[in-house]
Amino acid sequence: MSRRPLRARIVRFLLPAGTGRGAAEKGGGSAVRIGTLLELRDADGRWGWGEASPLPGYAGETPEHAAAVLLNWLADGGSAGTIAAEIDSWPLDFGDSSLASSPAARAAVVCALLDLAGRRTGAPIQELLGAQSPVVQGSSDGPTGGPAGGSVRLNALVSLNDLDMAVESAIEAGRRGIRTIKAKLGAGDRFDTDLEILRAVRDAVGPSIAIRLDANGLWSVPEARRNLDRLAELEPEYVEEPVSGGDLVDLVGAAVPLAADESLHDRDVADRLLDSDAVSVVVLKPSPLGGLDKCMDLAGRAASSGKRSVVTHSFEGPVGHGAACELALAIAASHAELSGGESMTCGLDRHAALEAWSDVAVPQLRDSSLVSAFVSGHGVDPTLLLERSGADGSI
After folding, report:
1. Class of domain 128-378
2. Residue 28: what are its φ and ψ, rounded to 5°?
3. What is the pLDDT of residues 204-242, one digit of tens each?
4. Residue range(s) in the chain whose domain bears CATH number 3.20.20.120
5. Cα–Cα dist 200/175, whole Å
6. What DSSP string describes 57-123?
7. Residue 75 contacts by C-beta under 8 Å, 6 or more apart in sequence?
8. Nearest to 63 by CA among 316, 354, 390
9. Is residue 56 reached through a cis peptide bond, with omega within 30 degrees of 0 on the bond before it?
10. What angle do CA 132, 138, 141 make, to 5 degrees?
């Protein structure tokens, strides 16, 4: 990647704030939010696109802040300096730039760079990620990323707001080939109601459907131990963030497997969790973690500690979602090559932001799985997003 771009620009567009119990809370109750697309274009007219569309109030970032950071970075000439560099370090090093203050903005830059690199070489992002940062099961001996290929199963979100709707939603997910469902848990009396609904869901779908649960860090450590003991009867695949931050380390020996998500945003806490037996799964979201490269690095470190990785989203639009799909496929390819086993189901099913832009294809996404689409870059063409946002970059 040695040539500088002719231009770089950002384009803002509208998308839903989120969906479901947890997303609605994080979105601050607003029906829509503003997303930002970043374009980097080289001297030969090839382009790469990234997206910065953080959920308001989630991970301490707003869409306005991410967009402002990108504008400042472009104004400071950051794009030209970055494009002139080779992708030869991992994670990518942007030096002392404004991107450090916005994980979503950094994620957009990394995505655009990798998309541009893929379109130059004809390679999908998963191949570029696999070549640069191996996901090694118990080892770190060298690159293992091979050519694109394979698939990753999807999990489906099931709302626990109503028993009958939850059961029907879980059954419908099974009909379309989904073998893992995920639900958000509440605290206090809400947890008792959620557990009752989950028992009905388990009875309806049987043992062939795996159940993942997410408490969003709402419980105290004593409450978490009690609730996890009660959840053991459901045999969940894991419970995500029963408590938040470093308190997760205090749950070593819990009655069910645990996963870390938001707690990974703090580097010091993430290091502690990777060294601890408290969690067996890390949940990777490119936008709040600062980019595909940082997620790949975390996946490799987790694997060397005997932990597995699940890739999911922050309700981004098609560009951000397509990039997350490539990350999931890269991790799956490395895992399969090293262990011969099936990778963990990912959380990249369709959601409200994709339905709002249903005519913008995410080529990797199928009804119940992701598949390697043999695209260049992330393969998402944002033309329709640009046309509706306005050619001058305004909404």
Report:
1. alpha beta
2. 70, 15
3. 999 999 999 999 999 999 999 999 999 999 999 999 999
4. 128-378
5. 17
6. TBTTB-HHHHHHHHHHHHHTTHHHHHHTS-S-SSS----S-GGGG-HHHHHHHHHHHHHHHHHHHT-
7. none
8. 316
9. no
10. 45
Quickly count: other Cβ atoms within 10 Å of residue 269's Cβ: 19
Tally Cβ neighbours within 10 Å of residue 95. Answer: 10
Half-sphere exposure of 374 (CA within 13 A, CB side): 2
pLDDT-derived band at 203 (thresholds 50, 70, 90) equals very high
Residue 323 predicted with pLDDT over 60: yes
Strands, sheet with 5-16, edge to edge from the N-terminal-most edge strand: 5-16, 32-42, 47-52
Residue 273 in tokens = 């969790």
Domain with CATH 3.30.390.10 in the chain: 5-121
Count the Cβ atoms, other than its own, within 10 Å of residue 227: 24
Active site residues: 184, 285
158, amino acid identity: V
Residue 41 vs residues 8, 115, 160: alpha-carbon distances, Å: 6, 11, 45
Quickly tell me which residue has 């890390």 as its tokens: 282
Per DSSP, the residues of 238-254 read EEE-SS-GGGGGGGTT-
Structure tokens belonging to residue 80: 């030209």
Enumerate residues 6+ apart whose C-beta is below 8 A from 302. Answer: 274, 282, 308, 309
| 28 or 113, greater pLDDT | 113
Residue 316 has pLDDT above 70, yes or no: yes
Are 55 and 314 spatial neighbours (Cβ–Cβ below 8 Å)?
A: yes
In 120-215, beta strands by DSSP E: 151-153, 156-157, 180-184, 210-214
Contact 135, 299 (CB under 8 A): yes
What is the model's pLDDT at position 141? 37
Q: How far is CA 23 from the centre of its chain?
A: 14
At 159 the three-state DSSP class reads: coil
Which residues does residue 181 pair with via DSSP β-bridges, in sequence order? 156, 211
CATH architecture for residues 5-121: 2-Layer Sandwich (3.30)
pLDDT tens figures, 48-67: 999 999 998 788 899 999 99
Q: Are 162 and 175 in contact (CB under 8 A)?
A: no
